[in-house]
Amino acid sequence: MALKTSRKNNYPEWYQSVIAEADMAENSSSPGCMVIKPWGYGLWERIRDVFDEMIRETGCENCYFPLFIPLSFFQKEAEHVDGFAKEMAVVTHSRLSMKDGKLTPDSKLEEPLIVRPTSEAIIADSFAKWVKSYRDLPIMVNQWANVVRWEMRPRLFLRTREFLWQEGHTVHASAKEAEEETKRMLEAYRELCENTLAMPVLTGRKPEHEKFPGAVDTYCVEAMMQDGKALQAGTSHFLGQNFAKSANIAFINKQNQSEYAYTTSWGVSTRLIGGVIMTHADDEGMVVPPRIAPYQVVIVPVVKNPDDEEAIMAYIRDIRKELSGKMPFGEKIRVKIDSRNRSSVDKFWEWTRKGAPIILEIGKRDADSNNIMVKTRIKLGQPEGKLIMPRGEFVGSVALRLENIQKEMFAKAKTRLDTNIRTDITTPEDFARYFGQSNTWIEEGSTGKVAFVRGKWCADPQTEEILKAMKITIRCIPFDQSHTEGVCLLTGKPATTDVIYARSY
Predict the structure, then answer these.
(1) Cα-Cα-Cα-Cα dihedral of 187, 190, 195, 201, to 10°?
(2) 94: CB partners within 8 A, 6+ apart
(3) Are residues 231 and 5 in contact, defined by beta-carbon separation less than 8 angstroms?
(4) Which of 204, 310, 489, 492 has the fewest CB atoms in 10 Å of its CB?
């Protein structure tokens, strides 16, 4: 049962339709904000839990910093302020009072407070208090928090005025250590995207004009969506001594001399859920990778005769008990019995829309014959993705079945990425002609749609204006440079640097 809007006919509308039909989120009455509903928030919880464990394994510890940041903290770092100024929400009054029956701001603050757009400035202030000696270093902290950026064109999960994220911050005694930490966390993001979200990514460094405000270098992971556009899935920043100097994060080194420390920051957000949708969902709705599914197996009772209900539910409870002992991906299978007073057909299609990896339909005939009706959200080689199998066989194979779903989802997305990076466009004329076309859904096996181009860039400042005019961005400078000579695809000038060009979200 297909959605009303398909990817092919209207990709942006299809995206919104998937979110609505899967009951993941909705626009809030607070302008530009979203309500993340249980199924959507369940995905974020799984992402959070998996990545939090990865963060802890690096030696990083969780903490929490204030939502409100004094304006003066941002003014210390001019480049940082300039990069975020248009997105900042500002608190100017501390309370409201009733006047003529209306609430009005009262008691103006001596210093305005910025509602956290990112936390480098406030965390640097704490680092300055914590760091005294080289023996205090490194310090590595992380927080799971909300962020406010005044987006003018909100879109659920991709761009909202308030969103959830993870932001890590570290401080080191040397540039080498800080750069190593920056790249280590970039690799952690790649692993999260590919191993947990089944979303293949490219990694590299951002060009100078795309760097995080105040950073020396910004590294990123970039994913290709089903319409060929790029989505920045995570960033890791080497901040050098910029924030250390503005906040006076100084320490006594081994030579008993004072020097400024080196800092990093890195983060991902609920934007990842938007990436998962646009990487995996289809014209029937959401498709959730098993490793982040709030429920990996959903059991739908099929009760046609009320007298059979007790026997069916007893059979289902026994199955859940057996499944709870299976350990795919190092944890118990997450099972949901949908016993709501609704038709089994409605419940089946609801969980199909939500993208539950495996749906079981179990009725009296199944209970009597010790069988299970199994529907996998992706086909796994079965014509209809649905089959009847013995209970013992299913229980014994469910862990492998979930793992195969995860692997197949990644393989499908990886094929899309690998076959839609053009490397044969070598002149500005061909480049302009290519990006003069519209982005559309990339059908499986297709290589003719507009997506990514890997080509040369001369780094001339005038290329920024050309990119803006063409509504194209340089997504990253890949680490695996070819070191060959060619011409810049924007100016025609000689160039040796390989970059990834694409339209983006």
Answers:
(1) -150
(2) 106, 107, 108, 109
(3) no
(4) 310
Q: Residue 361: which of 406, 321, 304 has the closest Cα? A: 304
Measured distance CA(166)–CA(168) in Å, rounded: 7
Q: How many Cα atoms occupy the beta-carbon half-sphere of 23 within 13 Å?
A: 10
**E strands along 39-161, which residues?**
61-62, 68-70, 89-99, 102-115, 139-148
Q: Which of 2, 3, 15 is nearest to 441 (CA)?
A: 15
* Spatial separation of the C-alpha atoms in residues 440 and 305, rounded to whole Å: 48
Question: pLDDT 10s digit of each residue in the chain, 505 long?
Answer: 789 999 999 999 999 999 999 999 999 999 999 999 999 999 999 999 999 999 999 999 999 999 999 999 988 877 777 778 889 999 999 998 888 889 888 899 999 999 999 999 999 999 999 999 999 999 999 999 999 999 999 999 999 999 999 999 999 999 999 999 999 999 999 999 999 999 999 999 999 999 999 999 999 999 999 999 999 999 999 999 999 999 999 999 999 999 999 999 999 999 999 999 999 999 999 999 999 999 999 999 999 999 999 999 999 999 999 998 777 666 789 999 999 999 999 999 999 999 999 999 999 999 999 999 999 999 765 556 679 999 999 999 999 999 999 999 999 999 999 999 999 999 999 999 999 999 988 887 677 789 999 999 999 999 999 999 999 999 999 999 999 999 999 999 999 999 999 999 9
SS3 state of residue 444: coil
How remote is the C-alpha of 344 from its chain's centroid? 33
Q: Tokens 């005769």 label which residue?
A: 305
Strands 473-478 and 250-252: unpaired
> CA–CA separation, 85 vs 71, rounded Å?
11
